[in-house]
Amino acid sequence: MVRQRLIILAVLALAALGLSVAAVACTVTATATVTGAGSLSLSHGATASISDTLDGSDQTVNYTVPLTMVDARGAGTGWNLTITSTTFNDGASHTLATTASSIASVSSSCNAGGTCTNPTNSTTYPVTVPAAATAPAAVKFFNSAVNTGMGRFTVTPSINVTIPGNAYAGSYTSTLTVAAVSGP
Q1: Cα–Cα–Cα angle for 95, 161, 149, nearest 5°?
Q2: What span, in angstroms and rounded, lies between the C-alpha atoms of 40 and 131?
Q3: How many of the other CB atoms lie within 10 Å of CB of 36?
Q4: How far apart are CA 113 and CA 128, in angstroms?
Q5: Which of the two ends of the chain, N or C, has the fewest CB atoms closer than 10 A to its terminal CB?
Q6: 8 phi and psi, to 5 degrees?
């Protein structure tokens, strides 16, 4: 009987201890510190090329330049893309007009494997790509408003090149200079 009482007392003590443990609670604060890489980055894919067959009429040919734009700053300050170029030249003193190239449109998409805030662009098209023997001042051709354009994107300008009907046959080249600049 004493043994039964001890067992009952032990069970009651364990039950009381269990109730007191269940009534104890605490809170934990989790802090996540996120830092930005501090810069914009821009890169391009393959070299662009176009071809055209002269037929005596003015013609327009098109090419695209897929660009990888990364805003890992984490600040939401926006950015813009600028462009300039050298004049299309065949190396034999023949050139296309300094206004031969224009950006007809630009598409953008978030790259796979990441989350992004799509850029809000306020640029209107077409945008003439300035050209000279040495690249002139750049012009803005795409932008990302404040609090947009954060993450990794493919930005693809579609560039039209006007070839006059009286152009000389040859292989013309032009060097594009594209830059990413902070701010919308």
Answers
A1: 125
A2: 25
A3: 12
A4: 34
A5: N
A6: -65, -45
Question: Cα–Cα distance between 16 and 117 in angstroms, integer?
Answer: 55
Structure tokens at 173: 């080249």
Other Cβ atoms within 10 Å of 166 Cβ, number: 8
Summarize pLDDT for 28-40 with one digit per residue, the tens: 767 576 666 677 8
CA angle centred on 44, ends 43 and 47, rounded to 5°: 150
Q: Are 147 and 76 in contact (CB under 8 A)?
A: yes
User: Residue 16: in which H helix or E strand, if any?
Assistant: helix 2-22
> pLDDT tens across 82-102, in order?
999 999 999 999 999 999 999
CA distance 150 to 69: 10
The CA–CA distances, whole Å, from 9 to 3, 6, 16, 20, 120 equal 10, 5, 10, 16, 72
Beta carbons within 8 Å of 123's beta carbon, 6+ residues apart:
106, 140, 141, 142, 143
Two tokens at 141? 């051709």
